[in-house]
Amino acid sequence: MEYILIHLGMKQFFFLLLLVGFTMQLSPAQEIKILTYNIYHGENPNRQGDSTFHLISDLLILNQPEVVALQEVDSMTLRSERIYQRKLDFMRQLARETGYKGYFGKAMDFEEGGYGEGLLAKKGAAYHTLPLPNPAGGEPRAMAWVKAELKTLEEFYFGGTHLCHEFAENRKAQLDSILSYAETLDKPVIWVGDLNFTPDSEEYRSIPSHWKEAGREAGNEQATYGTGDGAGRIDYIWYDSRKFELVEYKVLNQVAFSDHYPIWAVLRMKKEE
Predict the structure, then answer these.
(1) 16 band by pLDDT with thresholds 50, 70 and 90
(2) Which CATH superfamily, name and number, covers 31-269?
(3) Can you spell out the DSSP letters for 154-218?
(4) Tens of pLDDT along 175-227?
(5) Distance CA 253, CA 258 (A)
(6) For burial by CB atoms within 10 Å, which of 42, 215, 230, 241 has the most?
(7) What are the structural domain ranges in the chain?
(8) What whole-number distance in Å separates Cα of residue 29 and Cα of residue 196?
């Protein structure tokens, strides 16, 4: 009798394994929630010395994106000491507050610390920084990358950057560097950030057609920067349309912690045919 019960138990176990595998095959691909935000180094642009750290932390905890890119991030600078009464590693502290894995990609030395890009991912590895070219001079620029993993174990690369605000020559060279690098990656790619060009610019038009920009695909031309006559759309989420499809896009223009607004998209990874 004991042998029969054990035998039946094993059959039931293998049946359950088969059922779980079949269910996983039928389940839709997981949606990827993305947020990018130029945070004005974590200080209210209208009130000098007023920290926005906890407002940014609360925004991320409330919305729970899988991946986050932040621009204009300070790390251990004198400026952060003036705001927080101590030199602050902004990304490390933000990761502690939110439960994400954080990474700081330094673009340049600044006030005894660093200044550049921040990334957060719920699950990620292979964090690294790609220096970007500056043929016309000006501030150094960089792009931070992570290989992120979804609950379904699918992986993708996510990059965040802040392109040159002064020279179109620099922005074009930086774009060429980003796109060339993206083509070498062995997983689907999403890249985002404050790119300092508008949708009617030569830089925008130069991006190959398989890269889709979430705002344009959604038909949403809302400004991402400034107010009134100074408002414009210069913050973007780009994705490889061969690998992803757009589910949702919005500008969080009720969030006034910076001179930019956060932008948000939800993408779905396409099933391999």
Answers:
(1) very low
(2) Endonuclease/exonuclease/phosphatase (3.60.10.10)
(3) -EEEEEEEE--SS-HHHHHHHHHHHHHHHHT-SS-EEEEEE-S--TTSHHHHTS-TTEEEHHHHH
(4) 999 999 999 999 999 999 999 999 999 999 999 999 999 999 999 999 999 98
(5) 11
(6) 42
(7) 31-269
(8) 33
